[in-house]
Write a structure and sequence with these properties.
Blueprint (H helix, E strand, L loop, with lengths): L7 E10 L4 H11 L4 E10 L4 E10 L1 H12 L4 E6 L6 E12 L2 H13 L3 E5 L3 E8 L1 H11 L4 E6 L3 E4 L27
Antiparallel strand pairs: 1-3, 1-4, 2-3, 5-7, 5-8, 5-9, 6-7
Length: 191
Amino acid sequence: MSDLPSSQARTLAILVDNEPGVLARVVGMFSARGYNIESLTVAETDKAAHTSRITVVTRGEPAVIDQIKAQIERIISVRRVIDVSLDPAGVQRELALVKVRSTGHDRVEALRVSDIFRAKVVDTTLRSLIFELTGASEKIDAFIELMRPLGLAEVSRTGVLSIHRGPEIDRLSTGDQHSPALVAAVSVSGE
């Protein structure tokens, strides 16, 4: 029996042809079947190969996740679907900008907490601070919760990015006629 809960969050890296309508088809598949997307990031990752990477975080029972992967793989412009969450070599990170309105003791405490979380101050005024924070989603959630009583004003998050650690890369299949250039998402280290 698996140690994983029956309904679990899963991160899927979807390598696609960078062409109009691909994102709409992938997102439309989720919508049409009633699957929720908790996080979505998209960017071109290889201009020469005209490839983009869509990273989706969704939640469901293992059988539902397998069904989602199979349905995504059937979309014409999808080259590969990688389940990063089950891969021990998978690294997942998120970037957040967090604005806190505070003065006096709350401002000092916000700076102290940001130091513990290794958040960087990217903007400051006499009455507010903006922190940049990178790490696992749970780390960002914890930082946000600690900032609430200190004057949390606004949050902007990138959504989850993923990549494999080590020398292995998310390549297109070996028989692919496209460029074998590295297909990767931007990952900022330093959690």
